[in-house]
Specification:
mainly alpha
């Protein structure tokens, strides 16, 4: 499952989503996340699912790569669904036992929350799939530039956030390499009870921390050797500017949110409040 994590990876392409301004993509992603939490019924949820599918199609990112971004959260989705099934009451009883009480509202709410999480992960992954780390850093720095009046090091903060995303695939590869090395030395990482498996992770976690610290030091030294300072005076090879397609995308997301609000108004909060 570790190898299936694709968060932070960039997929090289030339789709409309790739050509959007990085700042606009961040704004649209935040707007979509807000829209997820204002969905109150299956009509608005259906609109959200259609928007997610349309985003995947427009991005031209392989479906296999998108599914890999969902696979690591399967346990979270399953756990959330089970909790909702057993603890949400109301509706028509499906199982009315002494210790187990499952209703239609519980099942529908579990499905509702699962789709919410999946859509959130897929659309958020589109941001890193279609934006290079350099453009993402510049976009975050531009969007946070008003914070400079409060003496906040925006350029450093943007670089830290982008490096954190960029090194997720690197750390995943490092975990896989360390795991294979420990298995080659005879380490048993797959058998035993829960406590034994937790203890078996120690030979993986310790080398991972050491390797991560070493990589961080090497990266800092490389940036110092290249006289990288960031902040004022830093020039960029590619200048960001808003185009017509960016404003069209903004209008589209505004209409999308307006549609969700209208569906919530006409059909009400059927399941999730």
């Amino acid at each position: 499952m570790i190898k299936d994590i694709t968060i932070g990876q960039y997929y090289n392409g030339n789709s409309v989503l790739h050509r959007l301004d990085a700042r606009m993509k961040i704004i649209l992603t935040v707007a979509f996340i807000v829209s997820i939490f204002i969905c109150k019924n299956f009509w608005s949820l259906g609109l959200m699912v259609l928007f997610t599918l349309q985003t995947v199609i427009i991005s031209r990112v392989p479906l296999k790569m998108v599914l890999k971004s969902i696979k690591p959260i399967a346990i979270i989705v399953l756990f959330t669904s089970v909790i909702n099934i057993f603890y949400i009451k109301g509706g028509t009883p499906l199982i009315d036992g002494r210790y187990i009480d499952i209703t239609t509202n519980g099942v529908f709410t579990a499905l509702f929350m699962a789709l919410r999480i999946v859509c959130l992960v897929v659309v958020s992954s589109m941001l890193t799939y279609t934006t290079t780390p350099t453009m993402l850093t510049d976009a975050i720095e531009k969007l946070l530039s008003p914070l400079k009046i409060f003496k906040i090091p925006v350029s450093t903060l943007a670089m830290m956030m982008t490096l954190a995303l960029r090194f997720i695939p690197t750390l995943v590869d490092e975990i896989d390499r360390i795991t294979n090395a420990q298995k080659a030395r005879g380490a048993n990482l797959d058998d035993g009870n829960f406590i034994e498996r937790i203890k078996a992770l120690v030979p993986i976690i310790v080398p991972l921390f050491v390797s991560s610290i070493r990589r961080a030091i090497e990266l800092a030294d490389a940036m110092d050797c290249r006289c990288y300072t960031g902040g004022p005076g830093r020039t960029r090879m590619k200048q960001m500017k808003f185009c017509l397609r960016d404003f069209i995308a903004l209008i589209f997301i505004v209409l999308f949110i307006a549609g969700i609000v209208l569906l919530n108004y006409y059909f009400g909060a059927v399941l999730v409040k």
